[in-house]
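Entry:
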Amino acid sequence: MKIAIYDDGKLGLVQDGMVYDVSAALSVLPVSDQPWLAARGDLLIANLEQLRPAILAALPGAAAKPVGAARFLSPVQRPSKIIGVPVNYHEHVAEAEADVATFSDRFRGSIEQQGFFLKAVSALVGPGEGITLRFPDRRNDHEMELGVVIGREASNIGVDEALSIIAGYAIALDMVVRGPEDRSLRKSGDSYAVLGPWLVTADEVADPETLDFFLKVNGETRQESNTSRMIMKLAEQISYASRFYTLLPGDIIMTGTCEGVGPVTPGDTITCAIEGIADMTVAIHPAYADQRILK
């Protein structure tokens, strides 16, 4: 099942190049009598199993439009955290070591020695919203990754059961501004975490660790690899992360990028795809003006 949030917040089911408005299914989501108490995790993802039959029930007669005519938001709207996995492809390790001036030499050693990093949840957008560069006078890079969305709460989970808590997959762009600051800060600007265009539920992806993917900027191929080339595999990532913090429904793991990381500038267009997941197009918008208050 391909589940989307699109246009003005409609719940969508994507089938055969069309997105169907199945927002009626949202009526099955629980309503709290204490709305001021924050729920643990993303409400939609936490109730995905109850939502799936309701989506199918809402499908007959649902209004539809072509996928190309929809503005896709992030399929996860309320993650408690966005987790980043550093330099998780050998070729990207070599790329970073060969260009210390760009990639810095402050982060050395294995993935476990470096540790994962967090991106601010306020950085999260969908492909239809695009990316707005925060520091146009500095280099801003694309990093394409497989996005993993956690489906249920887990802490200290073992590698052997880690894949069972995945709700689904999406394309992720882990955008970054280069500079001397800590990587979590440089990767947390508004719109620097793109997820989409929809969530493909885990049951539709037979082997997430053998997927081809690519990224192009203005039609030029920049990144191209296969998830089989990851250094730390998905189950290991989930287990490792859960040792440090409880994973909640809707938490996003950006599983690491391959070689070919490069800069983007306003007016550029990113196109990318992951086999069996989706393809998406993301616009690079002009940089923020010198504003003190954003509406």
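The two ends are 35 Å apart (CA to CA).
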